[in-house]
Amino acid sequence: MGTLVSQRLRLQPLLEGHADLLFEDLQAPELYTFIPQDPPELIGLRKRYAFLEGGESPDGQERWLNWVAIEHETGDAIGQFQATVRPGSSTNIGYSIFPRSWRKGYAKEMCLSLIGYIFNSFDTHVIYAEIDTRNIGSIALVESLGFSKVGMTKDADFFKGSSSDEYRFDLTRAKWSGSSL
Fold it and tell me: 139: domain range?
């Protein structure tokens, strides 16, 4: 897994050392509105990133691809992107853009690079994202990338005092190949 590059950004493989770089931005409460986690402690973040550096699940069945997105011009970290390549030709993607970088087109720019990389590098037939039904920004993003809503899980999670439903969005290799994005 190498560095991915777009017009304004580069995705660098996540390393333990990135914990110090990302820690402050990961404290923004807005990042945790639609996910069950809370802002991390620095020691825990370092341990998690060290674990993820291995690049695969303990049983070796899944590839764990994790990147930090860096803006070329400023060198600032703008977020994180991840892909879990699963057996059976499917890949789950996720992303987190820091609030100061919202609404600048960064997520779409990097997702385009990420999707291209996955379809070109793995025998993946479908890339999917599971998104809280209340997260309209993320829903709009995946729809703009050509993903289709294929299902909903009622009560997928319970956190911060309420139940969370999730949509599943899929993007097939065939649809991507025929896309004009």
Answer: 4-177
d(CA 12, CA 20): 15
Angle at 68 between CA 146 and CA 85, to 5 degrees: 55
Taking the C-alpha atoms of residue 17 and residue 43, their distance in angstroms, rounded to an integer, is 11
Task: CATH number of the domain at 85, please.
Answer: 3.40.630.30
Which H or E run contains 21? Answer: helix 18-22
Q: Which residues contact 130 (CB under 8 A, 6 or more apart)?
A: 92, 153, 156, 166, 167, 168, 169
Structurally, the chain folds into a number of domains equal to 1
CA–CA gap between residue 60 and residue 117 (Å, rounded): 21
pLDDT band at 178 (very low <50, low <70, confident <90, very high): low
**Which tens digits make up the pLDDT trace of 84-130?**
999 888 999 999 999 999 889 999 999 999 999 999 999 999 999 99
In contact, 40 and 3? CB cutoff 8 Å: no
Query: pTM for this structure?
Result: 0.89
**C-alpha Rg value of the chain to the nearest Å:** 16
